[in-house]
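fyi for ur records
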Amino acid sequence: MTKKKLIVIGGGAAGFFCGVNVAKMNPLLEVVLVEKTGKLLGKLKISGGGRCNVTHACFSMAEMIKKYPRGSAFLKKAFHQFFTTDTITWFKERGVELKTEADGRMFPVSNTSQTIVDCLMQEVNKYGVEILMNKEVKAVNKMGDHWQLVFANDTTMDADFICIASGGYPKSAQFDWLQKIGHTIEPPVPSLFTFNMPGNSITSLMGIAVDNASVKVAGTKLVEQGPLLITHWGMSGPVILKLSAWGARLLANNNYNFTAVVNWIPVFNEQTLKDKFQQVRFDVAAQKICNRNPFGLPQRLWQYLLEQSGINLEMRWADLPAKEQNKLIKLLCGQEFNVNGKTTFKEEFVTAGGVVLNEIDHQTMESKIAANLFFCGEVTDTDGVTGGFNFQNAWTTGFIAAKAIAGKLI
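which gave:
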């Protein structure tokens, strides 16, 4: 009996997961994975600072879907087939234990992404998945009851099934080959990026991290809370990345020019902070404001805020004038920064956009437009915030596609 052939397009997490799972589930299938570059699992290797943020320790689907700015309703249905618990079990069964960090991110106990790479490559070798590198797909054509792939060097390859796991593309034109099949593309825009604040004095504090800040995009409902990092170009850290994900389209439409409003101590608003100031002034009246920082902020940031408020660093709390006090309160609760541009967060490069989800069956990841064509991972219009959520999307959709393809030959 001649083996049927599946070609998986894309050598990232989603493509690998589809390929190795379908090869295990159905030995009657020849599985070929094609990658356009000379590297496999590139994003996986560098994610989480080279540790690989495999998934997130979230075991409630209702909570999990809140982490996906786009595709949450689609993934809510998909997660019923393969969820975070299944990811943890899948790797554990192959000798890879995961650990949970304080913020919920999950990494291999080994603390190196190579453990995950080795695990996936072990499965590739165990189940005979063929990998072809430097094979960029230029076109996918339906030829009767099978598919033909056309590569950049004009060579071709036939397949019975195709799974597209090519990842997100930064430019709409790069989706042309998918549009020619008949699929609709939601135009891509960057997600997970940092905020540029050229010329702003805050950049002199580069390297300073605040454990919990609230950041709002002025004039919108966009607001997030979490760790913030000051960089030499502006601001980064989880709170900024989350905000960029939720605001991906809006901020792109504004050409990345907007005002970010930072509350450095979000447990307070202006009124409650005024009350706190009265208490502090009573408790530590004779102490220098500079030396007595009652909010746990990094010392250099505290001094910067005092200077921005026009407060002499030698001044005692008892001598703080009302005008300067009010200015400091305003800065602590709502300091405004002009953002002009973005910087891609290289580790977690993600795009919002891709194949529209109403053209994909969530139960199988099969195209509703063309039979035996499947999608998984970020090539679809799904993306998550930082923290392991994009990899979970890759594992879930890759597994579902594998299961559906394997089932076609039973």
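The first strand starts at residue 4 and ends at 9. thats all i got for now
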